[in-house]
Design a protein that fits this description.
Elements lengths: L1 H114 L10
Length: about 120
């Protein structure tokens, strides 16, 4: 009888040990699976973030290039308009100045001719 009781305790101990080891193995497999899924999720998240960053940088670069191009074109047009306006203004000023000079010369010449002519020596009737 004593021998039978020891045998039962041994069997119960072995079954308990096998159950505990199996439970530990199942928990380990579940933990490894969860960690693997988390790792895959992290890789997917990093990939999505990288793609988003590349897309954002590309869009920002294109926007910057477009903005710089538009600003350059506007600057060129503005400088051209200012240059043409300045040239026209200088032409107008120069033309007016030349015309004034010519008129002054004509007035001076006419006055000189009049003053030096015989008409100044005659008295009105």
């Amino acid at each position: 009888m004593g021998m039978g009781m020891g045998m039962i305790i041994t069997v119960i101990t072995v079954i308990t040990a096998i159950t505990v080891i199996t439970a530990i193995m199942v928990i380990t497999v579940i933990t490894v699976t969860i960690n693997t899924v988390n790792t895959v999720n992290t890789v997917i998240t990093v990939t999505i973030n990288t793609v988003n960053t590349v897309i954002t940088v590309t869009i920002n670069t294109v926007n910057t290039v477009i903005t710089v191009t538009i600003n350059t074109v506007i600057t060129v047009i503005t400088v051209t308009i200012n240059t043409v306006t300045t040239i026209i203004a200088l032409r107008v000023i120069t033309a007016i100045s030349n015309e004034d000079i010519i008129n002054m010369m004509l007035i001076t010449a006419t006055a000189r001719d009049y003053l030096c002519s015989d008409a100044t020596l005659r008295r009105p009737p």
